[in-house]
Each structure stands twice: as C-alpha cells, then as structure tokens.
Amino acid sequence: MILILSLMACLNDDWVEPKAGPPVVPGAPVVGAAEGYLKLPIGTPLSGFTARCSCLGNQSKQDFRESPYLTAFTPSTGVQSYPTIKVIWIENGDDHLVITKTDQIYSYDGLVEDLEVKIGDATGLDLDGKIVHTVNHSHSSFGTFSDQVPFFLGSDKFNRENFERQATQMTEVAVEAFKNRERAKIGVSWTRDWDPDNAVYSDRRGENDDLRPWDEDESPDWIGGKDPWLGIMRFDTFEDEPIALLMNWGMHGIILGEDSPVVSTDSGGHAETVIEEAFDDKVVVMFTQGSGGDQSPRGSDDGYARLESIGHHAVGPVMDAWSSTITADNDIRLETVTRSIPKHKSTIRVTRNGEVDWYYSPYDEDNDDDGEIYDENGDIISPIDEFNTQYGGIFCGSGDLDLPIGQIETTAWPYGQCLNYELLSQLIWVFFDLDDNLDGEPSADEIPLPPRAALKAKTTATRFGPVPTMTRGGEQVDQDVFMGFFPGEAVSMYTHQWQRRVEQELGYADAWMVSYSQDHEGYLLIPEDWLVGGYEPDISIWGPLEGEHVMEGVLAMADELLSTDVHEEHDVMGYYQPTVYEDRPLPEIQPDLTPEAGTLLTENPDPEGDPEVWKYLIPEEIDEFADLVIPAQIPRGQGLVQMGWIGGDPGIDNPTVTVERNDGGNWTPLTSGTGRVITEGTHDILLSYTPYPYRPHEDLQTHYWWAAWQVVGHVDDVMGLPLGTYRLSVTGTSYDGGNTTWPWDGSPYTVKSNEFEVVPGTLTLTPDAAGFWVSVFGPATGFRLIEMNGHYRGDNPIVGPVTVTIDTPGGPEVFTNVAIANTEGGRSLVEVALPGDETLVTIEDAYGNIGTF
Predict the structure, then answer these.
(1) Number of structural domains, the chain?
(2) Do 246 and 157 sit in the same domain of this protein?
(3) How far apart are CA 826 and CA 162, in angstroms?
(4) What confidence category does residue 611 fall into, taking pLDDT thresholds of 50, 70 and 90?
C-alpha cells in the first residue's frame, strides 16, 4: 500500500497523503429485508435477446402496435410474472452493506450511483460505495434502464422515465428493509454437487471442457464443466426466526426465448417463488448469480410450467442446506469498498501476482502481428499484437456477425473474427437514433470512441465476520465472509480463478462470486478460456485480458482497503471514480385520458379484426382465444377464468389483479401459504395489454386489458385450492391530465369479474389388471404446473391417499386411506380388486377431486 501511494505521489504534485480513517469496530449483526415488484409500463421492450431488435429480426413481435417506451426493439405485451425487487440490509453499527436485487438482464453503474443518493437521502446515511445492485439475468424482463451505449443492442435505448421509475421503486423497498432491521444471527454453508442430475442447471460451454490452466496440485478440485457449488447465507432473528435467505449458484435466465413478448422473472425468479413457500411465514429469498455465464437452466415439463419446475427441483437441496446452516450473533467486523476500475487497451494488464506479464501492443495501422498466440511451452505470448484494434473488438468468439468489412486484420484465430467496435458503434448510432439522444455530443460521423461505458468497470468487495461457516472443504468453522460483486457474466473457470486467487493472495477461503452486479462488461473469462473461442467471448470489448484485469483490480482494492484495521478512503487519487453519464431529460409523452377506464368487457373487442389477439400470452399455439364469459362452475386445475376490461394508458396504469374468495360474506384476497397475496406478479395470473388502434401511439387509443387465472393453488397443494365462490378483482389508474412529465397524476378505478364457484377437479381413470391408473389431465389452455412428473397439458399424477368407492348390489363399499402403489407416465396406480360385472367405481384423491369409471 505504501509503495503504491508513493508512486502515485510522484505522478501528481497535488497529491496529499490521506488522513487515517476511523478504526474498524466489531459490532452485533443487524439485518433487515424487504421485497416488492418492479413495475414499468407494458410496452417497455424486453432485454437480453438482440434478435428482438428491429435491426435483427424483431423476434417476439406480436402485432403492429407502437409504444413510447421503445426505440428499436419489440414492445412487451403482457406479464407472466413481474420482476421482483429484493433487498437485504446488513450492518453492525460501524458499516453498512445494502444488497439490492432485481430480476433483469444486467446491472448498470449509473443506477447504483443514483441509488446511493436516493437511499442515502431517505435514510440520512452516507452510503457511498455501500450499495450493491445485482440481477438474476432474466432475458424476459424490462430493458431501457441502462445508458451503456454498447449494450443498447441487448436492451434498447436508455429511457430516463423508466430509469427514474425503477430507482424510485427500488428505493422504497430498500427503505422498508432499513426500517425492518433487527438484531440478527448469520451463517454460511457450501454444498457441492447439490444438483447431480442436472435437474436445475447444467454446463453449456463445451469449448473449455478439456482446458486445464492450472496444475493439478494447484487446483485439485477443478474438474471443468458445471460449477457444482451452492452457497447459502442464512439470516435469522435473535430468537432464531428466519429473516432472509441468500442463495448463490450459476443459472442463465433463458427458458422463455426470444419469441416471448411477456415479462417474466424466468428461471431464477421461479426458484425464489417456490423456495420462499417452503417457510412457514414470509421470508425474503434472494437468488444471486455465481457462474451464470456458462450455466443453462434445465427443469422439466414445458411452457411456463417448466419455469415453476426449476424451483421444485431446487427446493429440496436448498432447504436441506439452509436447515444445516448454523447461525450465530457474535460481533462481526464489516467493511464494504467500491471502485470503478479503469480499462482501456493501453492500460489493461494481467500479472497474476507476478507470475505473468500480459498486455497488448499499441495499435499498429500497418498490422505487423506475427500470428503467434502461444510459445513453445503453450504459454500466451506477450505483448499481444493480434488484438490490433484502436477501440476494442466484439463478436470475437463465434464470428456470428460476418460482415465483409470491419474485422480485425489478422490471420490469428480467434482474433480475426473480431468486429472492430468502431464499425459497430456506427451501426448502433443509426439503429438507436443517438444523434437526437445525446445532447451536445458529436454527430454520427464523430462518434465518441471508445464508448464511455467501456472505460470503467464498477466493482464492490465486502468482508464481514467471523460467522459460522460450513466450508467447501466440509469443515464447520468460524471465518470471515469475503464477497466480490462483479460487473458481468462470470463463467465457471473465471469464478474458480477468483476463489483461488483470493485464498492465495488475500488469505480468505471460500470467496463468493456474485456476478451480474454493479455494472456490465459482457462475459468474464480468463485469457486462456477466451482464446478457445465459442459464444462467450463475443460480448466484451477489450479482448482476452479484460476479465482478469478487472479481477486484479478487485484484488488490489481488497488488499489495499480491506486488509487494514481502519476505514480508508476508497479512491484517494480520484483514479477510480465512477463513469459520468449525460443528464437525460424526462420524456414529455403524456398518457391518454381514459374516461372509460373501469369498464368490464363481456365479449372480445376484436381489435383490427384479430379475434386471437390475446392468445399469445399462453405458450404454444392453441385453437381457443379469449372467452370472457365466465361459467358458473369451474373445476379445479382444468378451468381457466378470463376477464377483460378497458383500463388506463400503460404509461400510468399497472393494474393489480387479485383473486378474491367469498369467506362468510366477506371478499378476501387469496394468499399463498406464507401470506403473499396472489396477483398478476406471482405467476398465477397472466396479464395482457392491447391498444386500439395499434398505432400511432401519439393518437388517442382505447386501452384493452386481459387477465387469466387457471384455477389452481400457488405452489403447494396446487390441486387442493379451497372450494367456494370466487371472483377476480382489478385496481388500476387512469390519467387525470395536466402533467408534462412523469410522475403522472391519476385516479383509481376498480373492476370486478362475475362470481364463479370452484368445484372439485375431474380425475381420469383407466382400468388395469391391478386396479386403475388415475391422473389429472391438464387443459388445452392451461399454463400452470400441476404436478411434477406430469405435463401441464396432459396427464399428471394425483396426491394420495385416496378413497375408493365401489357400488355393489348390497350397497357401496368404501375403502379409505388407499395408498398410491406406483407413479408412471404422469399417472398414479391405485390398486383395487375390480368387480366382475358392470359397476360404478369412484376414486377421490386427497383433495376431494373425483373420477368415476
């Protein structure tokens, strides 16, 4: 540290040695947690798949509607599950760590900076460098919140209104977590090979399966392929009641593909949804990404049901790990530090603590690279002259974007596949109309290069403890937690290198990798992994050294700032300051006035002659379309309640749809087992929106909304939904007029569906020599998971024990508590001696659903 500061002093005559900060003081752990939904206007494009851009196919385009919340991407049209906001606030009376998480594609450093101000103002605390924003990497969540120009290709152009909406909603949840703080106990555990059958996730990067960048004695537990680790951080009250669960593994959010136009939390969000219902009361469950860059979700079943299955496959091993995690309330030291690490081709360097010295040759207009990547020992040759580009390269790994111009001129693979970012920047400028967006910036022929977003990588590291820890080595010890929050998609080899280097260079075992945090720089790979090619090297700008250069910046930050007994300034010289983005004005496109908002529809409005305008919300093509006539009786599992209404403009209206049950004359909201209200955000109710006419959006439109509820339970006892009288209830907002920018003034409206009675579901009975095969058959318009080992639109096993009634001439014979003998092919075998003549047989499952033969 002294040597570094001395060198910096030589470079800056104005430098003054900083005063020593206050001491790091241990204190009792205090934890607060809260959760909410992130609601941006429907029409906001979904991020993650560039194929949704009009420049590359407009995938997921449903119709010709327009939206004021997009520039070049396809508009979203509805919701399968709203992104959640989760916050866990940790403090010890001496320092703070505020972990915020949303279900989105990536983080954005400008958002983190804004949260520091907003949450700090709301709580009266200085939270500079203490707030983390991490995401679950859903490819079906809201975009437009990030002003990182290179990544407009993944989430559309920045929209200041949506940014402010998101920051405001996240601040509200963070303040709730702050108010919920209480004395706490903390514990950590690591579980290896917790998903041995790849039921939850699996490795997707085959290119590096045979790569061994470390000697076996240096890393004996490295086996390549799937990252096998599950990390659990358990937070309990002083009285041992659970507060929050932070879980960490790697899993992409790509079950809903580029054709889907609906908002969804995808795989990570549905894992949370199922696991949080394993508790008796409401507990904040937060999924954070580990090696998400090269791990794909698996699951079972199809459609939206596959999303739910992820959680059901994960809940057992996760809760086993949680149950065995020991917590304690002993005093902890806590210190959190943040820096924005500079990166440019001329300054990027990897040294591995003195073992190597890898850097790039300066840009050579004549391109005199030697085409040699490795020396005779197989080591990378430095300086690297093949990455011969002024402003970075992209699409280096797969070479999928094969243009006749713009590639780096070299014969060395994979460098020769790289597209110069200079050319790509010109395409981005045209696609996203950036001349009008960037006030005071040069015109398209004077695009600022490199892009400002590529010159800094915001990172955070924290150390707290000691806390009880079940280590990766299988020992129960008290040790510090060390976490790195990384700005990109860490692959498993990168995570392993991080853990190795932290232990070797800093002395902390079992380091956490929390990727997709604070900022975004594309995929994070070590140089050897980048050079084997494949898809993952495509989405980064500064070549093979960028990922480990960022890692070394975090290691240096931790060594300088977390290895002392005082709280030091994070950036003495002003070298690690965050990226400064333009101050964008709020858009001035006002919502429509909607005096008809709150009108219940009784028939399909048939906009533009398309009677099937809403069926896109239900996965896979179906013949049926919206039927707004609700039957008087609807069977459990096999019924779909559909409701349509005229509502407000989505610029102000994010309608909440709840299920209400008549309980002794009082209508009460349906809740999950943990008390969460069932809404359009929880995967139980689909929500869709259609404007009419479709375009232009500047003209006055009628705003049609639609909701559908499959009559089943939330997570547990799906076929055991209580019988009774139900209805759907909608609360929304209609614009009042007068405002010129968000936030808009509005008035509430309400709509109630017609009442209907939920009756037992129908079981399908098929005779067998041993008795009957019994199943619940999922309806053709179904979208919910009914039972594991079944199909959401086919046979599903039943829940026993069952009751069998056989009508005989002498009267009915009733057999109770009959066990299910076998489950196979989505059906359950009920063994019963069949009568010899024609006789009515009735089988009733544990919930009272009935089938006859």
Answers:
(1) 3
(2) yes
(3) 44
(4) very low
